[in-house]
Automatic annotation (TrEMBL):
PANTHER family: DTDP-4-AMINO-4,6-DIDEOXYGALACTOSE TRANSAMINASE, TRANSAMINASE
GO terms, molecular function: pyridoxal phosphate binding; transaminase activity
SUPFAM superfamilies named in the record: PLP-dependent transferases
Pfam family, one: DegT_DnrJ_EryC1
Membership in a protein family: Belongs to the DegT/DnrJ/EryC1 family.
Protein name listed in UniProt: Perosamine synthetase
Alphabetic keyword roster: Pyridoxal phosphate
Length: 384
């Protein structure tokens, strides 16, 4: 049989290679002009919200929480249907995570559950655009009021829209990931977007050790031209020029990537419409998802069986995600199963089918055939 058909992968062309090579031949490998240019290019997709690029999606979350002033004594509300970093980066800053359940169908943060989780200690509520479908940001704003910062974990949803407004413009802070399986890649990378210039400035300082260089902000402005100061601690989360060049090249094709994903989703929707034992992903009328994942639900307690059968046939299905509060690190802190029943029930059924721009129709048909065979309990055909 052929190798494993992955559930996601990067799409790299010669233009991307050439963009990287040009930087490698130049004077700047990091902290140079490609960084600013990439941030400006990204702002074209965020409704003009300013961006600070960072070394990965986890760094983006850590940086955003730091920019929001999250620290010991604060609470951060997080849905459990996400990668652990949405919660763990808040814990790393000393905050307490409070998990709030997700909505049926989209499995994004439930505004009512989020509002019920808010206390006087809540600093940030983090919504996650699961699978590339935006959360209901207007409903979240209405439920939370204006005293709590709203963060959009948009690792799955760059290029998506909510009521025709772009992701990046919907929350006080937005984080992106550019991991190879995401909707565009810088190999490793991420970004923080913010409409508030003060939040953006704090994010940019945190990703660069907290260094202050602006003469008007220095406490010892007459020290000399070399002088720089640390006023608040930060980390080295810089994204180098060479990877920003790759990101700029990729970003020029983001519209094509999104269109390819939407076409493949439509083919999956049609092919699976009458297949018993599986539910297709839903979407709201106001959403234009970015479709990072195609998450189906396998019914009748058969998810593990179907997963194993498809993997044995060379189909790289995946499960996204183990509810965050089920991870041992959170269980050891006292978080218990049963607290977020919608997310937990979804996890028991969830299976991500392969989805990426270069997935061919023939490979997609192979996925559909393998899923149908696995559900029927008949032998799954492997590729020659």
């Amino acid at each position: 049989m052929t190798g494993l058909l992955p559930y996601g992968r990067q799409s790299v062309v010669e233009e991307d290679v050439a963009a990287v090579a040009e930087v490698l031949r130049g004077d700047w490998l990091t902290t140079g002009p490609q960084v600013t240019a990439f941030e400006e290019d990204l702002a074209g997709w965020t409704g003009g919200a300013g961006c600070a690029v960072v070394s990965n999606g986890t760094a983006a979350l850590h940086t955003a929480y730091a920019a929001a002033g999250v620290g010991p004594g604060d609470e951060v509300v997080v849905p459990p249907m996400t990668f652990a970093a949405t919660a763990s980066t808040a814990v790393a800053l000393g905050a307490t995570v409070v998990f709030a359940d997700v909505e049926e169908e989209t499995f994004t943060l439930d505004p009512a559950a989020a509002a019920a989780a808010v206390t006087p200690r809540t600093r940030v509520v983090s919504a996650v655009d699961y699978a590339g479908h935006p959360a209901d940001y207007d409903a979240l704003r209405a439920a939370l009021g204006r005293d709590v910062l709203l963060l959009a974990d948009a690792a799955h949803s760059i290029g998506a829209a909510y009521h025709d407004r772009p992701v990046g413009s919907l929350a006080d802070l937005t984080t992106f990931s550019f991991f190879p399986t995401k909707n565009l890649t810088t190999a490793e990378g991420g970004a923080v977007a913010a409409g508030d210039p003060a939040l953006l400035a704090r994010a940019r300082r945190f990703r660069n050790h907290g260094l202050v260089r602006e003469p008007a902000a220095l406490r010892a402005p007459d020290e000399g031209g070399w002088h720089q100061e640390v006023h608040e601690f930060g980390l080295n989360y810089r994204l180098p020029d060479v990877l920003c060049a790759l990101g700029r090249s990729q970003l020029r094709r983001l519209g094509d990537f999104l269109a390819a994903r939407a076409r493949l989703v439509a083919r999956y929707d049609e092919a699976l419409a009458d297949l018993p034992g599986v539910l297709r992903p839903a979407r709201r009328s106001w959403a234009r998802p970015a479709w990072h994942l195609y998450p189906v639900r396998i019914l009748d307690g058969r998810r593990r069986e179907v997963y194993d059968r498809m993997r044995a046939a060379g189909i790289g299905v995946q499960v996204n995600y183990l509810p965050v509060h089920w991870h041992p690190a959170f269980a050891d802190l006292g978080y218990r199963r049963g607290s977020c029943p919608v997310a937990e029930a979804f996890y028991a059924q969830q299976l991500s089918l392969p989805l990426y721009p270069d997935l061919t129709d023939a490979d997609q048909d192979r996925v559909v055939d393998a899923l149908a065979a696995a559900l029927r309990g008949t032998p799954v055909r492997t590729a020659a």
